[in-house]
């Protein structure tokens, strides 16, 4: 009885804390929205970033952050935020519209998504994962049913094979979707002009210039430099401070 | 490198009118019907140097005039003679014949300044047709001429820019000129680089009619290529250096009329810079969306008698010269009483470079209440880089009759079935922020890297393994009756012992010993693989002792059998005595289970 009371007390404390934390986040979110409505876009972006830094992650937060940064003239940062929102809710029409709108503003070289990348991008990595593993659950569930009720084995044979085949296809899709969701694959330029140099040295000659918002494919990184390439197969090194990139981003 | 085929197109303006009457007559006889007639005039160049020739072309479509219209005297232009004509007929998409007849009249320029060629009015086949006036700019000297010391080059490339400065967003037509010394008879394999660079967008090259120019003391045939140029950044743009190659043909001709000498020549153009200016922010209208150029606007709104929620289509056509693709419909803040849907847009250009034309927007709106009496004025602002001023085009408010309606139904917005960037709804600004936080999470780590998720995936695997093992054991049991009996006996003994203890506690002697006897029979029957009912005390001597079981165990069993027999005659025992018998039975049954019989 005593332990039950302690459990109840802990549940109340924990539940109350969670409720308090949620309302705190809501308050901060509304404050950030008000800043945006007052055209204080940089302040709004800072407020949204603060919520994210505190550990609350949501597609809406990244979307609103992207809007704030876009309005504040930070095209590259806005695209990075929209990309994060897209990773969480890839089929959100608002996210897609604003990302497309922002990408259309990018000048100069930027990597373009292929049709297959766009197709695999219609589902998030987690959605592909859940689908693939749901296939495993279904297939194994059918196998279990066949073990428990051997009389059903013949009737379930076709369904088992179909399920196994579907699961294999889903896992192939998951494997193909994995590379484009690999952290640190893309660097997004966040300065007006980022000089991509032939080698990771300040004195190295420039290979090409990428502009704010340009997305570049990351090949390697070394100290403060990131090796990148674009669709024109131009290679070079760009400073980390000029791009939105981290090995885990 | 961009490879362009080049044909010799030296101006041959001294020739007589080509006799194509037979072709014309044949075409005229074949044509039963024709397209709607149009008549246009055009110049091969709109800017020339004093003394140069310019060709005025009369183009008739869908009609065959009897001949060239009467040419009035045009001050500053002197016909040089050698009018040529052309005729073309083709079948249109609906199977109707389309005829095009052209007359090209060469003139020589006689004065500098702007020469206005008036519009022409002709009557052909009972139809009155007219053309628009044209303006020709005649300069005393070429402002984009290369330096005289370039005359030492046999071939060189020169970029002619029409302006000394450029506004961001402004589109100009630049000219890339290939200068070929007049001794060169022909060229081939022309390789001109694609024009790309930082801070500007250049369109594809369009070859235009060539002309002759003097550079220093040398005469050059100039092959011009026009392209559009637009600055996108607020930095001075630098074009070039541009390098290319061409095979030049010259010298005496052989029997077949081919030039005997040919050589590949590399050429280049020096880099040229052009200052870029930002569009001024002073005096910029509130609805200015970055349009730079010179435009006119027509607006068509309908229907004007609707119920609330009914769709009203607003068609806006912005025509003129500029970056048409980039034009955006400004947000109309005064349309608060209307629900607006994303507009569709379509661009139609009238020149090869895509600089002149119109962009048609179609936006569907619907009044949200019956108090609406008019659609507020629609305005579009642009910056004219020629006058360096902003201009706002305004369509006045449109009277509307709005009556109360039922449930508003979202109108169907006409859109091309084919995905087309032009036909797709044009987004003029980002979608606004969201007011609700929605689903939140504490981590962005994908499921694939979360141990809990991965551990959960072992559940179906373990379930399958368990089912598999269970199935195997069930099958094994089904095929082994002795094992099955052993299990059943174990179960019977487990339950039976509990029952015995209960009987002992309640001092129910008869039931107790009957149960005890049954348990002994079950265990011994299972051990000896014979029916339980066949087990009596006699099996101890007849079947167990010969198998070498320990005497102590046999004695215990004998005692238990005897206790059962005695109970028939002296059934009353104490609770303690019955409890002791249970312990003894348990011990005996355990030993029996352990020994191999």
Structure description:
- The complex is a heterodimer of chains A (249) and B (597).
- Chain A has 249 residues and is an alpha+beta fold.
- Chain A folds into three domains: 2-105, Tetratricopeptide repeat domain (Serine Threonine Protein Phosphatase 5, Tetratricopeptide repeat, Alpha Horseshoe), CATH 1.25.40.10; 125-180; 186-244, SH3 type barrels (Roll).
- Chain A contains eight helices and seven strands, in the order ααααααααβββββββ.
- In chain A, α7 (125-148) packs antiparallel against α8 (153-180).
- Chain A is globular, with a radius of gyration of 24 Å.
- With 597 residues, chain B is α+β, with helices and mostly antiparallel strands.
- Chain B folds into four domains: 2-139, Immunoglobulin-like; 148-277, Sandwich (Immunoglobulin-like), CATH 2.60.40.10; 294-381 and 390-403, Immunoglobulin-like, CATH 2.60.40; 481-594.
- Chain B contains eight helices and 35 strands.
- Chain B starts with a strand and ends with a helix.
- Classes of the chains: A alpha+beta (249), B alpha+beta (597).
- Chains A and B meet through α1, α3, α4, α5 and α7 of A and α3 of B.
Describe how the helices and strands are arranged.
The complex is a heterodimer of chains A (249) and B (597).
Chain A: H1 2-37, H2 41-53, H3 59-71, H4 75-88, H5 93-104, H6 115-120, H7 125-148, H8 153-180, E1 186-189, E2 193-197, E3 206-211, E4 215-222, E5 225-229, E6 235-239, E7 243-244
Chain B: E1 2-4, H1 21-30, E2 38-43, E3 47-49, E4 53-61, E5 77-79, E6 84-91, E7 97-109, E8 113-117, E9 121-124, E10 127-130, E11 134-139, E12 155-160, E13 166-167, E14 171-181, E15 186-192, E16 200-202, E17 206-207, E18 211-215, E19 218-231, E20 237-239, E21 242-253, E22 259-269, E23 272-274, E24 276-277, E25 293-302, E26 305-307, E27 312-322, E28 338-340, E29 344-349, E30 356-367, E31 374-375, E32 378-384, E33 389-395, E34 398-399, E35 401-403, H2 451-456, H3 458-478, H4 481-505, H5 509-528, H6 538-544, H7 551-569, H8 575-594
Parallel strand pairs in B: 3-11, 13-24, 26-35
Antiparallel strand pairs in B: 1-15, 2-4, 4-7, 5-7, 6-7, 8-11, 9-10, 12-14, 14-19, 15-21, 16-19, 17-19, 18-19, 20-23, 21-22, 25-27, 27-30, 28-30, 29-30, 31-34, 32-33
């Amino acid at each position: 009885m005593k332990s039950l009371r302690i459990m109840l007390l802990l549940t109340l404390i924990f539940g109350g804390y969670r409720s308090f934390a949620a309302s705190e986040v809501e308050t901060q979110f509304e404050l950030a929205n008000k800043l945006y409505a007052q055209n204080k876009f940089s302040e709004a972006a800072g407020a949204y970033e603060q919520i994210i830094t505190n550990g609350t992650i949501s597609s809406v937060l990244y979307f609103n952050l992207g809007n704030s940064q876009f309005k504040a003239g930070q095209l590259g940062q806005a695209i990075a935020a929209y990309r994060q929102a897209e990773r969480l809710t890839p089929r959100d029409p608002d996210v897609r519209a604003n990302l497309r709108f922002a990408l259309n503003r990018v000048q100069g070289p930027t990597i373009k998504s292929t049709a297959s990348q766009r197709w695999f991008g219609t589902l998030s990595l987690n959605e592909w994962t859940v689908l693939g593993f749901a296939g495993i659950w279904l297939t194994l569930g059918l196998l279990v049913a066949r073990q428990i009720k051997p009389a059903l084995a013949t009737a379930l044979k076709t369904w088992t094979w179909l399920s196994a085949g579907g699961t294999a296809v889903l896992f192939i899709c998951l494997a193909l979707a994995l590379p484009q969701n690999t952290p640190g694959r893309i660097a997004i330029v966040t300065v007006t002009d980022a000089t991509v140099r032939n080698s990771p040295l300040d004195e190295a000659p420039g290979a090409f210039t990428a502009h704010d918002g340009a997305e570049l494919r990351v090949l390697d990184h070394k100290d403060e430099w990131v090796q990148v390439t674009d669709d024109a197969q131009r290679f070079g090194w760009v400073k980390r401070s000029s791009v939105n990139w981290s090995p885990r981003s | 490198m961009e490879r362009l085929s080049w044909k010799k197109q030296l101006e041959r303006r001294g020739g007589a009118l080509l006799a194509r009457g037979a072709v014309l007559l044949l075409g005229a006889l074949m044509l039963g019907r024709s397209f709607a007639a149009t008549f246009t005039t055009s110049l091969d160049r709109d800017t020339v140097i004093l003394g140069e020739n310019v060709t005025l072309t009369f183009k008739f479509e869908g009609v065959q005039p009897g001949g060239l219209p009467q040419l009035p005297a045009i001050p500053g232009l002197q016909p040089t003679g050698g009018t040529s004509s052309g005729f073309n007929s083709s079948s249109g998409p609906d199977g109707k014949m389309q005829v095009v007849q052209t007359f090209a009249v060469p003139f020589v320029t006689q004065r500098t300044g702007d020469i206005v060629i008036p519009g022409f009015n002709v009557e052909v086949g009972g139809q009155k047709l007219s053309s628009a006036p044209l303006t020709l700019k005649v300069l005393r000297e070429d402002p984009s001429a290369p330096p005289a010391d370039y005359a030492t080059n046999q071939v060189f490339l020169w970029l002619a820019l029409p302006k000394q400065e450029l506004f961001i967003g402004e589109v100009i037509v630049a000219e890339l000129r290939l200068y070929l010394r007049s001794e060169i008879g022909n060229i081939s394999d022309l390789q001109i680089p694609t024009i790309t660079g930082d801070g500007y967008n250049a369109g594809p090259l369009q070859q235009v009619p060539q002309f002759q120019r003097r550079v220093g003391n040398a005469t050059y045939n100039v092959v011009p290529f026009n392209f559009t140029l637009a600055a996108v950044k607020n930095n001075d743009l630098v074009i070039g250096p541009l390098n290319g190659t061409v095979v030049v043909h010259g010298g005496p001709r052989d029997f077949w009329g081919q030039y005997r000498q040919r050589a590949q020549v590399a050429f280049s153009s020096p880099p040229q810079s052009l200052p870029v200016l930002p569009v001024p922010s002073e005096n910029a209208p509130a609805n200015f969306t970055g349009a730079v150029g010179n435009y006119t606007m027509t607006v068509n709104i309908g229907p004007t008698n609707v119920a609330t929620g009914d769709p009203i289509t607003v068609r806006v056509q912005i025509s003129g010269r500029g970056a048409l693709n980039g034009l955006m419909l400004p947000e109309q803040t005064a349309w608060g009483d209307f629900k607006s849907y994303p507009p569709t847009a379509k661009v139609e250009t009238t020149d090869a470079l895509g600089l002149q034309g119109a962009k048609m927007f179609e936006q569907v709106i619907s009044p949200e209440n019956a108090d609406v009496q008019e659609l507020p004025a629609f305005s579009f602002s642009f910056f004219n880089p020629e006058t360096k001023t902003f201009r706002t085009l305004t369509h006045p408010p449109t009277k509307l009759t709005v009556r109360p309606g039922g449930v508003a139904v979202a109108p169907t917005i006409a859109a091309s079935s084919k995905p087309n960037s032009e036909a797709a709804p044009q987004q003029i600004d980002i979608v606004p922020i969201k007011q609700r936080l929605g689903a939140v999470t504490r981590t962005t780590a994908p499921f694939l890297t979360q141990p809990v998720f991965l551990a959960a995936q072992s559940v179906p695997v373990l379930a399958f393994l368990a089912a598999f093992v269970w199935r195997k054991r069930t099958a094994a049991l089904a095929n082994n009756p002795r094992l099955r009996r052993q299990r059943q006996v174990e179960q019977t003994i487990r339950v039976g012992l509990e029952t015995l203890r209960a009987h002992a506690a309640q001092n129910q002697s008869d039931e107790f010993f009957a149960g005890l006897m049954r348990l002994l029979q079950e265990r011994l029957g299972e051990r000896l693989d014979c029916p339980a009912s066949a087990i009596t005390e006699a099996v101890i001597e007849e079947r167990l002792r010969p198998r070498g079981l320990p005497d102590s165990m046999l004695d215990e069993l004998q005692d238990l059998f005897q206790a059962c027999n005695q109970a028939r005659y002296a059934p009353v025992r104490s609770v303690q005595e019955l409890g002791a018998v249970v312990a003894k039975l348990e011990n005996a049954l355990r030993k029996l289970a352990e020994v191999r019989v």
